[in-house]
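Example 3.2
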Amino acid sequence: MKKLFPVLLLLLILTACSNEDNSTSDSELTIYTTVFPLTSFVEQIAGDTVNVESIYPPGVDMHSYEPTQKEMMSYSDGDLFMTTSNELDPVAASIADTINGDTEIVETAADIDTGAFLDSQHAHEHDHGEDEEAHDHGQGSMDPHIWLSPDLAIEMAEAVKNSLAEHNPESAEMYNENFEVLKSDIEEIDEQLLAVTENPVNTDVYISHESIGYLAHQYGFHQIGISGLSNQEPSQQELTEIIENIEAQNIPYILYEPNVSSSVTDVIREETNTEPLYFNNLESLSQDDPEDSTYQSMMKKNIETLDKALNSK
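Structure, written as tokens:
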């Protein structure tokens, strides 16, 4: 019996350690997010205190993505479901209806008045008169790509931080410190955008679909989307006008988004001899983007793209 006692004691210690590890694992929040910036913000603010996963597969177009009923039900196993807002993201609204009551819904942009934001930036917008109307497929306050604006991205990140601190108050101080670092990085992105848009050679930026409206309003250039907000294709008249305007202005580049169909954009590029530039609207990462990508690293690549598009002859 004496020989068995040390063995039993060791087993008890190992069992206790195992239970402690499981308890720690069980205490971690499980968070589902929609768009990539939210995933990145959660990862950077919360670190290893949470498990976070985006509902969007790589390269998905949020305008056409439809999760299965089984996938939607699986999100009810999470503690939090983070989205921009149900108003800006119809897919998220549908998921929220399914999982509400099981998982807390966090709308990180619920308090952001996108219409007021666009109005406040209107004085900086380039005036294009009839040209702007001709290529407007619905640009306005319902544009979901609010995270491309550094100002609005900071507001979303702060909402993420506040929600995390509410659910893990013991880590609130760390969350706040990490948020401040993230906020500083995003403010640096704003400074870089101000620099590349200060005196542009070209004030028109052509892009595969209308995703950069908030950037255009905030930094004083004009987007012309080949397709509209929901990827509706241009009419034949609009297509002809786009080609004529690109040739008249000697536009050197068209921005291509990895999650947007490019067949019409390809036609325009071939007709005008423009070159493609990669721009990620950050709805999701593509298969070609690095796995360790962050909101900051992707936005810096986008700034390089905008710099070429705006400042090349």
